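User: Quick sanity check before I run a bigger batch. Here is a single chain. Can you write out its predicted 3D structure?
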Amino acid sequence: MFGLGPFEMVVIGVIAVVLFGGNLPEVARKLGGSYREFRRGLNEVQQQFRLAEYEAKKNLSVDDKASKKTAELADDEDEPAGPQAPKFTPPS
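Assistant: Done. Predicted structure follows.
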């Protein structure tokens, strides 16, 4: 867990008991609540980024489709209906 071996975890546990003593359950509860609030806030920020990314992709795809349709209409207007050759008038 977190790259800590069993000995390091025991040392951390002993230090926590020495520092906090009888208040250790209360401190752990507060620390857990703070961590939960942090994760909740982080998840909300991630959700907002995902929503913004989704909306941006959606808008880009709508814009791409509209620009393709506009380009197709413009291409249709510029091109003649069929193949044309220069008109030849024989010399008189």
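The helical segments are 6-20, 24-78.

User: Great, the batch can go ahead then.
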